[in-house]
């Protein structure tokens, strides 16, 4: 269920970023069916593709994928990860600035980025009655999404996660920023994939990321005005390769356990085709339903002896087994 949910969310993120690769200016769909509606709009407006953005996207993807392949192939020899994303951002910014891509070719760029912080204010508690009902599902989804992502990467890298600790952390990360007009804090699949693909392993990476963002907000934002939006989209999409590769594992999942494969497909499809929130809910409910069904329909079998040994196995699964003549050995799993 976790793999299916992550893959469906990855496909949703890829879909949202796809329009930037082509330089299309189509409205972002809100609500259910984002993937379907967005792809319909993309193909309906594909004749408006910006050639400059398309060429830039193709170049950036080739460089990023090449960097990832070199990183994976020679990771034992490389003492530090290749800063491919940083090189791409710096090079693309310089090329866009000196080439005047926005003026000459109407390429979509980041544009003006406001610097500084909004002065802190006490949250308006008078609004609580209006936002409390919407706040509950936001809190549940943000917590569940964070734990699911944590479990997914914990499984990948071989460590354990304590959900209670995550809940305390998310609570603090929402209480403190509430005085600074911040968004709701939660795990971000795209950013997590980017950091994982670049070799980040400890909390130091988050500290460095925060410091870099702080410097950008305070000082460096004007230098990124010329950066094309398609470059950022390329970095996000390339970082999703690992999650999207899960599609190749479906046949193996089906051979190992049809129930698990169906759970994966349902969670992935619901997340991608309906919405991330409902996809998570559908995946959990369907997974629990499958568990209940399995417990109510346990496997039963008659056993036979293997040649002249004291080992017994299911006579329907193995050949040349000898069933006892006067006794039936019944196994209830």
From TrEMBL:
The keyword Transport does not apply. This is SLC26A/SulP transporter domain-containing protein. It comes from Xenoophorus captivus. Signal peptide: none annotated. InterPro entries: SLC26A/SulP_dom, SLC26A/SulP_fam, STAS_dom_sf. The chain crosses the membrane at residues 131-149, 169-190, 202-220, 264-288. Residues 2-267 form the SLC26A/SulP transporter domain. Its main location: membrane. The lineage of its organism: Eukaryota, Metazoa, Chordata, Craniata, Vertebrata. The keyword Membrane applies.
């Amino acid at each position: 269920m976790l793999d299916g949910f992550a893959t469906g969310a990855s496909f949703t993120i890829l879909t949202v970023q796809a329009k930037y690769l082509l330089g299309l200016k189509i409205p972002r769909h809100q609500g259910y069916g984002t993937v379907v509606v967005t792809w319909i709009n993309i193909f309906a407006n594909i004749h408006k593709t910006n050639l400059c953005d398309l060429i830039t996207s193709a170049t950036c993807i080739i460089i990023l994928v090449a960097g990832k392949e070199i990183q994976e192939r020679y990771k034992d020899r490389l003492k530090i990860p290749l800063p491919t994303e940083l090189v791409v951002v710096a090079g693309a910014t310089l090329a866009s600035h000196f080439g005047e891509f926005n003026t000459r070719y109407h390429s979509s760029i980041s544009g003006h980025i406001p610097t500084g912080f909004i002065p802190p204010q006490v949250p308006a508690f008078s609004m609580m009655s209006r936002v409390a009902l919407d706040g509950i599902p936001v809190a549940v989804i943000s917590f569940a999404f964070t734990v699911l992502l944590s479990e997914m990467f914990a499984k990948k890298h071989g460590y354990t996660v304590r959900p209670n600790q995550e809940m305390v952390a998310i609570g603090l990360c929402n209480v403190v920023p509430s005085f600074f007009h911040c968004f709701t804090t939660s795990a971000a699949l795209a950013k997590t994939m980017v950091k994982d693909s670049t070799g980040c392993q400890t909390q130091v990476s988050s500290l460095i990321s925060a410091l870099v963002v702080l410097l950008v907000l305070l000082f460096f934002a004007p230098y990124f005005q010329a950066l094309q939006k398609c470059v950022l989209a390329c970095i996000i999409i390339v970082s999703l390769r690992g999650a999207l590769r899960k599609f190749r594992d479906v046949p193996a999942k089906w051979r190992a356990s049809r129930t698990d494969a169906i759970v994966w497909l349902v969670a992935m499809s619901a997340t991608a085709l309906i919405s991330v929130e409902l996809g998570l809910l559908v995946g959990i409910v369907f997974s629990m339903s499958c568990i209940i069904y399995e417990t109510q329909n346990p496997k039963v079998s008659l056993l036979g002896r293997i040649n002249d040994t004291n080992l017994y196995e299911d006579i329907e699964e193995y050949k040349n087994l000898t069933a006892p003549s006067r006794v039936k050995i019944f196994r209830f799993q």
